[in-house]
């Protein structure tokens, strides 16, 4: 936590609660979900220097690449908002993201856009179209049976896709 400190003059807008706030049990009165993911953005331009989306996937076959452990996966997950770390019945980790799209054709178009990134990186996710409008992408490195940095690089690149033309338009609200 930054505790009110700033980096390069930027204010991150978050702080730790004070002793008084903690003792007042203020958290019991807050609406929302404690598991909400928050995006903390660094100074402008930082992502262009160190972001996962600017890295390239590396070949894993025949190398000494090992699947990452759960704490490392959760640390990297914070860099790919919207993605969840999942564990299968065998304990293998994967990254998963789900999108609700307008219709079947929009789902196929999202497959195409993700596929273009996958081909360029040589790292292919499992894609699922369920119902007619729910697209799910599962990322894992099959050759190591779990997650590697490549999966997070792919998730970051997928996050940069503009999918606003594929998702349902928000309904007009008639109340505040």
Automatic annotation (TrEMBL):
Residues 1-20 are annotated as: Disordered. InterPro entries: PCD_sf, Pterin_deHydtase. Its EC number is 4.2.1.96. It is an enzyme of class 4 (lyase). Coiled coil: none annotated. Pfam families: Pterin_4a. Keywords: Lyase. It catalyses: (4aS,6R)-4a-hydroxy-L-erythro-5,6,7,8-tetrahydrobiopterin = (6R)-L-erythro-6,7-dihydrobiopterin + H2O. SUPFAM superfamilies: PCD-like. Belongs to the pterin-4-alpha-carbinolamine dehydratase family. This is 4a-hydroxytetrahydrobiopterin dehydratase. It comes from Coccomyxa subellipsoidea.
């Amino acid at each position: 936590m930054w505790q009110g400190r700033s980096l390069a003059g930027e204010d991150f807008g978050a702080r730790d609660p004070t002793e008084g706030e903690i003792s007042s049990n203020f958290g019991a009165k807050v609406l929302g979900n404690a598991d909400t993911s928050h995006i903390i953005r660094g100074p402008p331009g930082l992502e262009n220097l160190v972001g996962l989306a600017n890295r390239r996937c590396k070949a894993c076959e025949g190398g000494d690449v090992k699947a990452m452990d759960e704490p490392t996966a959760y640390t990297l997950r914070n860099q790919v908002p919207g993605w969840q770390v999942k564990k299968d019945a065998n304990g293998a980790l994967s990254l998963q993201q789900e999108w609700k799209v307008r219709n079947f054709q929009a789902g196929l178009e999202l497959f195409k856009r993700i596929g273009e990134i996958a081909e360029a990186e040589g790292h292919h996710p499992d894609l699922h179209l369920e119902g007619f409008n729910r697209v799910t992408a599962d990322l894992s490195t099959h050759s190591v049976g779990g997650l590697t940095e490549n999966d997070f690089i792919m998730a970051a690149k997928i996050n940069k896709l503009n999918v606003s033309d594929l998702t349902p338009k928000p309904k007009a609200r008639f109340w505040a």
